């Protein structure tokens, strides 16, 4: 009997890379670009966009979820 080789689903590398970029942005932007800025609209826009991006990536992962590997 031949054992079937399973490959990770297509798009997993994209998802992992996008999540890594998002995590880095969540660290670098507030402590870098926005560190000296007064609290205002730019901070609100960043965190709103960050939150929407997190929701989108989680939704993308859940939509492609499979019970079997």
Overall pLDDT score: 83
**Outline type:** elongated
In whole angstroms, how far apart are the ends? Answer: 20 Å
Strand content: under 5%
Q: State the helical fraction.
A: 55-70%
The major sheet is characterized as: none
- Judged by helices, strands and strand pairing, the structural class is mainly alpha
User: What is the chains' assembly state?
Assistant: single chain
What features would you describe in this structure?
Helices cover 65% and strands 0% of the residues. It is built from two helices and no strands. The radius of gyration is 18 Å and the shape is elongated. The mean pLDDT is 83.
Quick structural gist:
This protein is mainly alpha-helical. The protein has 2 helices and no strands. Helix 1 (12-33) packs antiparallel against helix 2 (41-63).
Give descriptors for this structure.
mainly alpha, 69 residues
Give the helix/strand layout.
Layout: H1 12-33, H2 41-63
Helix pairs in contact: 1-2
């Amino acid at each position: 009997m031949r054992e079937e080789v399973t490959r990770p689903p297509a798009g997993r590398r994209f998802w992992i890379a996008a999540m890594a970029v998002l995590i880095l942005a969540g660290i670098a932007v507030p402590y870098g670009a926005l560190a000296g800025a007064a609290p205002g609209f730019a901070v609100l826009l960043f965190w709103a966009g960050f939150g929407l991006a997190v929701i989108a990536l989680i939704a993308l992962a859940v939509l492609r979820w499979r019970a079997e590997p």
